[in-house]
Design goal:
Elements: H1 7-13, E1 22-24, E2 31-37, H2 39-57, E3 59-64, H3 68-76, E4 82-85, H4 89-98, E5 108-117, E6 119-122, H5 133-141, E7 158-160, H6 167-176, H7 192-201, E8 205-209, E9 222-224, E10 230-238, H8 243-261
Parallel strand pairs: 2-3, 2-4, 7-8
Antiparallel strand pairs: 1-3, 4-10, 5-10, 6-8, 6-9
């Protein structure tokens, strides 16, 4: 397991030729909140909210997408106000202990900030419009191997796995495969572009992933209807959040309520 990135090294990295994924507001903000961890949470939740938080609350954000384990290590070491997670806290803690950390604080608190849906995608030439979660399970277990079994053409199904270590893969394994990572079948991928490429170029391919911001040439696939597969995005604090972070959480909750009403 990688060691936590000390705050001095993290700040210094901003001036290196190839810095870590990190960004901060100017010192003009009334308060600065440091959030380290999942790049997914950083990109999906906090980068879009940065201007609103600064303008409405006078709170600036320093964000570092250094990975969930490093984010938790930094939180435990007092180097940030919160860790960003796209996995359940218990999963992230289990990973830390598996790679050597012996003492986990008992005051870690999880704060949901958003959720992300995993969409099922197929090649545009595929006529199948919907797939049940039960059939999707059969596909990823290798029990359903031909589209003819689902009302489609006589064509071999090529399951494409979400990338290793991603929240989408963990959620697929948890929700469809009873938590057994050894049960999943299909082509392993390295990222969203890799997944999209397999699906758009292989007639029989099927993939599962959040829909990212990709160039138009990568978006040549079709979403099929299926039961909802979703995972949460979280902040984790030591005890109660600081007053500034509490205002950030209130702002995000209010924004989520407005979005759900519209």
């Amino acid at each position: 397991m990688k060691k936590s990135v000390p705050i001095v090294a993290l700040l210094a990295s901003l001036f290196a030729p190839h810095p870590l994924s990190a960004a901060g507001d100017s010192a003009a903000a009334g308060a600065m909140v440091r959030l380290y961890g999942s790049p997914v949470v950083m990109e999906k939740v906090f980068e879009p909210a940065r201007d609103g938080l600064r303008d409405s609350l006078g709170v600036g954000l320093f964000l570092a997408g250094i990975g969930e384990a490093n984010g938790l290590e930094s939180l435990i070491n007092g180097e940030c106000e919160a860790a960003m997670l796209s996995s359940p806290l218990e999963d992230a803690v289990a990973e830390m202990t598996r790679y050597g950390r012996r003492e986990i604080p008992t005051d870690l608190r999880r704060h949901p900030v958003a959720s992300e849906r995993v969409w099922v995608i197929v090649n545009p030439s595929n006529p199948v419009r919907s797939i049940s979660l039960r059939d999707l399970e059969g596909i990823y277990r290798g029990r359903i191997t031909n589209w003819r079994e689902l009302g489609g053409p006589d064509l071999r199904i090529v399951p494409v796995q979400p990338p290793s270590g991603t929240a989408a893969r963990k959620t697929l394994i948890r929700d469809l495969l009873a938590g057994n990572p050894d049960a999943i079948r299909g082509i392993e991928t390295q990222g969203a572009k890799d997944t999209a490429n397999y699906v758009r170029f292989l007639d029989g391919a099927i993939g599962a992933m959040p829909i990212p911001d990709l160039p138009p040439n990568y978006m040549k696939f079709r979403i099929v209807e299926t039961g909802e597969i979703r995972y949460g995005l979280y902040l984790v604090t030591r005890g109660a959040p600081s007053p500034e972070l509490g205002r950030v959480l209130d702002f995000l909750n209010a924004d989520a309520e407005r979005t759900s009403r519209n």
